[in-house]
């Protein structure tokens, strides 16, 4: 319809352009045929010259031939313009025949009810075209459109623009107005009586809003998924809205009860006992004490430092009265994919949310809820983009001391970056992981297995939720790229190592440290002389 309307609007312009072109050609012809002034006339032979008459006739004949050729050229151009106009007219007729008024959204003011119905049908068709109710098959990992996440105060975004801020207050008026409108519409929808329940309804306000995610699909619209606090602990209210390049439309309004949703955190490990002790401190505080609906599976490779790791587990179990853990030992070379696959298949209980995790990850209780809310068996898997910490020794090099770990975990461009190239931390139901075929166990060592699994989900009909989250951090550690890695794995490892150290600006300060110190020294000497 839009294409046909474009042709209708363009047709008068084309006719006008043709008229202007013909007039211009006529003016050029008149100017060309007008005799030139005395100063511009061709030099003619003198009349007393014996060949004057013959030369004069030859020049007149030449000028007449030139004018004749010019007229022929103008006629050809006019013929071509007429043919082009005829072709555009035929093309417009063809478009009218090819696209009948199956979805006539022209605003016919004589029939306002029909126009409104057609417009509503078109907008609803936009919802059906977009990835709202189910996922679509994608060709590569780069084809997925990521979500942005937001709270009442801030927006957490991948597309940071020129500011390079991974998180920012929605200071732009258009963005601020958009998110406020969506939250207000969601609150109004939640407070609307359903006409069924006789109990006094819970009156929702913006303060009940927990978090939201949104993304815009070109030619379709913007999808919003908002989560509010429910009536009881561990209960939430989730509302889905869609803006199909027009008014926001409510897609779904549902109660989400996560009180009994267990998360099985699976950690593959080899050695690194000191890192595991740090991980267990985080797990105890966030997973056991604050969340409480969690299971831990540790898949350990080899026997070196194994007793120390088991001792850390047992001490945590006794002190926190925590029994929901599994320890699996494999006598083989470390393989992250193998460890996660074994841990997932070892589970024998009901369908459970699997959180594939590493020992150098820090998570919050809020993230565990995000993990639950963004997974749904047979429909959705969650691929959060975590915030990767820079080397604290570089970041806080000019401080008297390095702050505590909790004080370091802030989302700013000086402290880290969104690890949007990593796909290792993921949440999905065990049934979806088994049905998709699990990990490729032929991949050994570090890297590659996570991308392979991610592509499997993208090629399926499951919806992949890809968004930065504020409660998942990759803690800095010195990365060792072993010689045993394949060339591709080694390259990936070195790229990851380079990005982990510091920002471009901080690395630049280190590289040009000598020049900076020399400049400061010169400035000091100059000030003394004056």
Automatic annotation (TrEMBL):
Gene3D superfamilies per record: Spore Coat Polysaccharide Biosynthesis Protein SpsA, Chain A
InterPro entries (UniProt xref): Chond_GalNAc, CS_glycosyltransferase, Nucleotide-diphossugar_trans
Transmembrane domains' residue ranges: 7-32
Main location: Golgi
Membrane topology value: Single-pass type II membrane protein
Residue ranges of coiled coil: 71-98
A GO biological process held by the record: chondroitin sulfate proteoglycan biosynthetic process
Class of enzymatic activity (EC top level): transferase
SUPFAM superfamilies: Nucleotide-diphospho-sugar transferases
Localization in the cell: Golgi apparatus, Golgi stack membrane
Keywords, in A-Z order: Coiled coil, Glycoprotein, Golgi apparatus, Membrane, Metal-binding, Signal-anchor, Transferase, Transmembrane, Transmembrane helix
Highest taxon, organism lineage: Eukaryota
The keyword Oxidoreductase appears for this protein: no
Any one Pfam family match given in the protein's UniProt record, by short name: CHGN
Enzyme Commission code: 2.4.1.-
Sample GO molecular function, one term: metal ion binding
Catalytic activity reported: 3-O-(beta-D-GlcA-(1->3)-beta-D-Gal-(1->3)-beta-D-Gal-(1->4)-beta-D-Xyl)-L-seryl-[protein] + UDP-N-acetyl-alpha-D-galactosamine = 3-O-(beta-D-GalNAc-(1->4)-beta-D-GlcA-(1->3)-beta-D-Gal-(1->3)-beta-D-Gal-(1->4)-beta-D-Xyl)-L-seryl-[protein] + UDP + H(+)
Gene Ontology CC: Golgi cisterna membrane
Family: Belongs to the chondroitin N-acetylgalactosaminyltransferase family.
Full protein name: Hexosyltransferase
